[in-house]
Amino acid sequence: MANIISDETIEYVGILAKLELSEEEREQAKKDMGSMLDYIDQLSELDTTGVEPMSHVFPVNNVFRADEVTNGDDRENILKNAPEEKDGSFVVPRTVE
Amino acid sequence: MSKEYETVIGLEVHVELATKTKIFCGCSTAFGGAPNTHTCPVCTGMPGSLPVLNKQVLEYAMSVGLATNCQISQYSKFDRKNYFYPDNPQNYQISQLYLPICHDGSVEIETEAGKKSVGIHEIHMEEDAGKLIHDDWEDCTLVDYNRSGVPLIEIVSEPDMRSAEEVIAYLEKLRLIIQYLGASDCKLQEGSMRADVNLSIREVGVAEFGTRTEMKNLNSFKAIARAIEGERIRQIDLLESGEKVIQETRRWDDSKEYSYAMRSKEDAQDYRYFPDPDLAPIVVSDAWLNEIKAREPEFRTEKMLRYKEEFGIPDYDIDILTNTKHMADLFEETVALGSDPKKASNWLMGETMRLLKEKNMDPEDICFSPENLVKLIKLTDSKVINSTVAKEVFGELFEKDIDPEKYVEEKGLKTVNDEGALRKTIEEVIANNPKSVEDYHNGKVKAIGALVGQTMKATQGKVDPAMVNQILKELL
Predict the structure, then answer these.
(1) Distance between CA atoms of B357 and B207, rounded to whole angstroms?
(2) Alpha-carbon distance B345 to B330, whole Å?
(3) Which of B107, B170, B434, B466 minimizes the number of CB atoms within 10 Å of its CB?
(4) What is the mean pLDDT for each group of 10 consecutive residues in chain B (476 residues)?
């Protein structure tokens, strides 16, 4: 494997992804991530001189909507997706800033 | 010996755009709805929902860019800024990092120190987040996504400002430009314009910038000025005592006039920006840009020149009238309906400004129509009512936009032009106030004022004070 993932990297990625990994899972994740990067590295073999970076998979641009209200009050349905609701709001664990 | 320091300030200004709907969905942006009544799968970040850009957002952003001398990116796109916080249901904010819609602009400001240009690094479009309400009782947090997806532009300045005065002049300039464009009402108190202050200190003559802090939660010009002064002193104290300024975000508490660190940027979040695959790139043609440029309104500087030339009113009046778009529009409409410009101006910068101040209102909150203001002006011009009554009627006009003609008729406020009756009343007043009459004859010319006052009282203010004066002088 050309890409070796360090303990620090897997720890950091875990924090970003909000994942708590066991020792065993960490080792597996390091291996998986390394081989994924190896696979992606194949792209570097291509000569991309003069090729503009692609920002969208389809050759479309300027997809707009007019500034008109099309949605009404659909709170009842929207709140069905909430793990918990109270006073018409989504309830989440207390956040402190 | 203490060293001399220079304050270096750059601003990030968020402006809420005046669209009817959100940036990526057809939900209303109206303020004050019950929690989550302006939401849909898009602005609550449901899997499989597809955001589509509101064209008006793009046009407003470009109009602000053009008015602030920016280059417009004719190829632009949106990126995802990843962060984990419940105000943002997608766990990313749709914003622009790599190709912001506008860049490299400038505005000219004027302070007592003179004129200067403040550079604009970029202007990008993004979505606002939801509102979190902490429930102390239940120890949980309630989330309202009505504001999630409300369109914002973020205007990032260069670190070109050196004092609170310059910062406020810059914000005033932006506010005027954006209000004149109709792109936002820019109210700091209500949060439709929000400024974050990036500030650092360096010794005079040193080329490199010092370590900067970012100050948030500034919702009035006064709070901004106080926060700048507070942070300037805090940083100088640190440097003087041999300590270092830490790069961090601080929250200003205006009631305590103190700021505290929110989070350190060193362990800061890694936003992992990447292009948003749900949104198609934006391509702006020259023709489209020209069209937006052509729609540009008359800005304040041009308006000021025109008022002077066309209406011949004093600079003082012009300054007040053009300070908000709403006031300027009201003035122009009143004049167009046949009012003398100076008379319209007097009502607007005099009584109107006085009442706005007294009631703690903004010019945007004025409810009376130019049609009714013209009626009032015509009633005074034709001497149907006198100036005292006119003020009273104006108070009603300001409150309820009443029809002055009807109001005067119904309340019987017309000036009495019956000279015979007036003479009789004045004779009575003279007979009942011998002291004032004596004073007058003894050379106290001002004593006549008391007699005029008594006459006005006796006639319930319905007579012309000039006429009273004249008859009084005659009879005395």
Answers:
(1) 45
(2) 10
(3) B434
(4) 86 97 97 94 95 98 98 96 91 95 97 95 97 85 96 98 96 95 91 94 92 90 93 94 91 88 63 93 97 95 94 94 92 95 94 92 90 93 86 92 91 75 83 85 82 82 78 81
Two tokens, residue A27? 């080792």
The CA radius of gyration of chain B, in Å to the nearest whole number, is 29
What are the structural domains of chain B? 5-288 (no CATH), 298-411 (no CATH), 419-475 (1.10.10.410)
Q: Which of B20, B41, B133 sits opposite A68 (nearest CB)?
A: B20
Angle subtended at Cα B85 by Cα B83 and Cα B87, rounded to the nearest 5 degrees: 115
Cβ B141–A65 below 8 Å, yes or no?
Answer: no
A54 and B280 Cβ atoms separated by less than 8 Å: no
Q: Which two tokens stand for residue B314?
A: 């004093």
DSSP state of A44: G
Are A88 and B146 a contacting pair, CB within 8 Å? no
A62 and B262 within 8 Å at the Cβ level: the answer is no
Mutate to test the interface with A, among B140, B250, B269 (most CBs of A within 10 A): B140
Q: Which domains does chain A have, with CATH numbers?
A: 7-43 (1.10.20)
- Report the residue from B53, B84, B135 with minimal CB separation from A18: B84
- Residues B463, B452: Cα–Cα separation, whole Å: 10
Q: Which residue of B has its CA nearest to A87?
A: B35
Best residue in B25, B36, B278 to probe A by mutation, most A CBs within 10 Å? B36
- Angle, nearest 10°, between helix axes B370-381 and B404-411? 50
pTM attached to this predicted model = 0.84
CB atoms within 10 A of CB B451: 23
In DSSP terms, B6 is beta-bridged to B202
Per-residue confidence (pLDDT) for residue B2, from 0 to 100:
67
